[in-house]
């Protein structure tokens, strides 16, 4: 089982780091800007309401899409770098 | 041609298309029935996931709830999209690498126990049946409108159609049918929205129209909406909410529920490679976002149109007379989903918020109570009529709503039937069952699930989207934690996983049943479902997130108190983490 090698361990760590970073942004765009931090952003007006409302109804969704594609793209690079990609 | 004939033409035509495709791609083997041969491109797969995902809840019900609740109900938008981030990063690629047919199969193998597999089957069935109840309720609304019958009759017709439809094909038939359904549903959802956005704001893109200026009044659309509804005693559309804890937990519950729902996860088994599983999640969300970015615009514009229909001279002037009501109100009255009662006998339609705060104003205007009750679930279907759009647009939206309800119901029923036939019967009761016998038991369990869901769908414990939200809570509390721990922890063992799933599932179910009735049977609830009665202000819809935390906590506690999983299981966990060596999905 090659899975116990040093490289495999680093591969998994790189993956976990990337997931962690992505999930911080994921949480910030939804739970942060759209819900808990909305009062802080209420000064920024946008089409009859404020930025928090925009994040709740559109901004968070756009962020999610960008995050998934970014993750898929980065992971493919990491797969190749550690040589664990599929042939 | 009458509107009825146009509806029939659009709905009938779209059905012939789906059934034609289902027959053309009829599943031949059990493998085809479950996973479509594993040869589906990420973009195609993303579209099929989109159709699978966007159900009656997203299509028919969600915009209506946002229209009624405003900002507070943005939770549905974030919750039902944000889960894809979790799926793409925490589950999909690893489950694809694992390469089996069903969710209980993974749980059974990873936690090396038949018991764990059976508990997973139980969780899957409870979540999926609840989900189907919501679909049946939504499909019932759609059928009752376009056939102009009473809503219970509509529900019965929906049940028969779903049954015929789901029995015809397995996953293979469904994948291509669902691509067709996605196209029908997205076109029918966006066309009326584009028209309405143009009418109100001059902007052809509804998501931009939402934040544009309302042509008639010259102020931003959302500001205008706020002005009108607050004058009638309603809450500000864009107002912030006080109970943020509940809002966060509800959103979280929908997100992790998304990642725990078997009919979505099963889709990731059908891609050729691990990298494709990651891309599939992204494409799925792109296709889903097309509708989810349009929905909030539909919601606010429909609410505005509804208000200006009833109060053509503005909220300070008198509302319209009942005898001069638009035709759509009359047609929806037939279904019983709009009701009118002339409480002050003035022949006009007073639509306002009957609250205590507004009572003095209502009295001053000689109003004796709100007279028009509009069911939230009809808003999207009635939207083109409210905006006076041509008849073919109304026919189109009926076809789209049914496509949404049917595609999801079929996907879920497939997940239920494969759990029963593959995991329950073949996996433990009768391992020697023939392929033919397995397919037969799959179809019988499908029929039973439809009957149960139809029975409970007649008196659903909420609007379609709320019932579906309950299903998400259940999936969030039971399946998601088990799947995630199975991949990210080598230490969680069979006992921990089983205890965790049972604790999460039962805590969530008990909390839901206390407020919504035991097994959703009306009038068997112990406490009234009002915010004052909720524990810490947490609604039964939001409790799934708490259930998931209970699941994680119990699983870790039990696992660390008992022995480590065997070495070969730890190696299995290792192997799902690395993409190399993923074959196609395997039977065993």
Rounded radius of gyration of chain A (Å): 18 Å
Helix content of chain A: over 70%
Q: What is CATH's topology name of chain B?
A: Sodium/glucose cotransporter
Proportion of helical residues of chain B: 55-70%
Q: Could you please describe the fold and organization of this structure?
A:
The complex is a heterodimer of chains A (87) and B (588). With 87 residues, chain A is mostly helical. Chain A has 2 helices and 2 strands. A two-stranded antiparallel sheet of chain A has the order 1-2. Chain B is mainly α and 588 residues long. Chain B has one domain: Sodium/glucose cotransporter (Up-down Bundle). Chain B has 23 helices and 2 strands. The longest helix of chain B is centred in the last third of the chain and has 39 residues. Chains A and B meet through helix 1, strand 2 and helix 2 of A and helix 5, helix 11, helix 12, helix 14 and helix 23 of B.
Fold topology:
The complex is a heterodimer of chains A (87) and B (588).
Chain A: H1 6-36, E1 45-46, E2 49-50, H2 51-81
Antiparallel strand pairs in A: 1-2
Helix pairs in contact in A: 1-2
Chain B: H1 3-24, H2 30-35, H3 42-53, H4 56-69, H5 74-98, H6 103-110, H7 114-146, H8 151-168, H9 171-201, H10 206-209, H11 221-231, H12 244-258, H13 262-265, H14 274-310, H15 327-335, E1 338-340, H16 359-364, E2 372-374, H17 379-386, H18 391-429, H19 435-457, H20 464-488, H21 494-516, H22 543-561, H23 567-577
Antiparallel strand pairs in B: 1-2
Helix pairs in contact in B: 1-9, 1-18, 3-9, 3-14, 4-7, 4-14, 4-18, 4-20, 5-12, 5-14, 6-7, 7-8, 7-18, 7-19, 7-20, 7-21, 8-18, 8-19, 9-14, 9-18, 11-14, 12-20, 12-22, 14-17, 17-18, 18-19, 20-21, 20-22, 21-22
Features:
heterodimer, A: 87 residues, mainly alpha, two-stranded antiparallel ribbon, 2 strands, 5% strand, elongated, B: 588 residues, Sodium/glucose cotransporter, two-stranded antiparallel sheet, globular
């Amino acid at each position: 089982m090659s899975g116990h090698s040093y490289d495999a361990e680093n591969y998994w760590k790189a993956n976990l780091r990337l997931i962690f970073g992505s999930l911080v942004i994921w949480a910030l765009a939804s739970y942060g800007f759209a819900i808990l931090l909305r009062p802080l952003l209420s000064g920024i007006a946008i089409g009859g309401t404020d930025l928090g409302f925009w994040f709740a109804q559109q901004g968070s969704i756009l962020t999610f899409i960008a995050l998934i594609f970014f993750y898929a793209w980065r992971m493919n690079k990491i797969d190749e770098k550690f040589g664990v990609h599929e042939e | 041609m009458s509107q009825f004939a146009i509806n029939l033409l659009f709905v009938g035509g779209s059905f012939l298309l789906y059934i034609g495709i289902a027959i053309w791609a009829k599943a031949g083997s059990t493998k085809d029935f479950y996973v479509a041969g594993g040869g589906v491109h990420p973009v195609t797969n993303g579209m099929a996931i989109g159709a699978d995902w966007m159900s009656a809840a997203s299509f028919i019900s969600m915009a209506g709830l946002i229209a009624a609740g405003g900002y507070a109900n943005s939770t549905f938008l974030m919750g039902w999209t944000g889960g894809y981030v979790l799926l793409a990063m925490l589950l999909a690629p690893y489950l694809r690498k694992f390469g089996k047919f069903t969710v209980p199969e993974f749980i059974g193998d990873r936690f090396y126990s038949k018991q764990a597999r059976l508990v997973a089957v139980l969780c899957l069935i409870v979540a999926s049946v609840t989900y189907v109840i919501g679909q049946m309720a939504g499909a019932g609304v759609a059928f009752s409108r376009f056939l102009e019958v009473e809503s219970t009759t509509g529900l019965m017709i929906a049940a028969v159609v779903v049954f015929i439809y789901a029995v015809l094909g397995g996953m293979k038939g469904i994948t291509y049918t669902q691509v067709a359904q996605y196209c029908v549903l997205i076109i029918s959802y966006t066309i009326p929205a584009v028209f309405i956005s143009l009418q109100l704001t001059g902007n052809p893109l509804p998501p931009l129209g939402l934040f544009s200026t309302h042509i008639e009044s010259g102020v931003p659309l959302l500001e205008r909406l706020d002005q009108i509804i607050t004058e009638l005693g309603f809450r500000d559309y864009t107002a912030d909410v006080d109970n943020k804890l509940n809002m966060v937990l509800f959103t979280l519950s929908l997100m992790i529920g998304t990642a725990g729902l078997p009919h979505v996860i099963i889709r990731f088994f059908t891609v050729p490679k691990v990298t494709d599983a990651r891309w599939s999640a992204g494409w799925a969300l792109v296709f889903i976002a097309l509708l989810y970015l349009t929905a909030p615009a539909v919601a606010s514009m429909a609410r505005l149109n509804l208000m200006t229909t009833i109060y053509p001279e503005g909220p300070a002037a008198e509302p319209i007379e009942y005898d001069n009501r638009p035709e759509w109100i009359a047609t929806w009255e037939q279904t019983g989903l709009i009701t009118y009662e002339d409480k002050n006998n003035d022949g006009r339609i007073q639509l306002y918020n009957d609250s205590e705060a507004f009572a003095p104003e209502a009295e001053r205007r000689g109003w004796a109570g709100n007279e028009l009750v509009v069911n939230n679930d009809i808003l999207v279907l009635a939207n083109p009529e409210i905006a006076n759009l041509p008849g073919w647009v109304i026919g189109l939206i009926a076809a789209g709503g049914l496509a949404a309800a049917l595609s999801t119901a079929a996907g879920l029923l497939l997940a239920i039937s494969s759990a029963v036939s593959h995991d329950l019967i073949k996996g433990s009761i009768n391992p020697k069952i023939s392929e033919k016998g397995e397919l037969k038991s799959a179809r019988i369990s499908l029929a039973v699930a439809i009957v149960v869901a139809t029975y409970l769908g007649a008196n659903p414990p909420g609007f379609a989207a709320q019932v579906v939200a309950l299903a998400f809570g259940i999936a969030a509390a039971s399946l998601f934690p088990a799947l995630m721990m199975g991949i990210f922890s080598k230490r969680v063992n069979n006992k921990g996983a089983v205890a965790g799933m049972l604790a999460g599932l039962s805590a969530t179910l008990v909390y839901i049943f206390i407020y919504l009735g035991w097994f959703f049977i009306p009038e068997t609830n112990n406490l009234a479902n009002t915010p004052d009665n909720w524990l810490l202000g947490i609604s039964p819809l939001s409790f799934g997130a708490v259930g998931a935390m209970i699941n994680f906590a119990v699983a870790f506690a039990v696992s660390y108190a008992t022995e480590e999983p065997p070495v070969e299981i730890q190696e299995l966990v290792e192997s799902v983490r690395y993409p190399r060596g993923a074959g196609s999905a395997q039977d065993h």
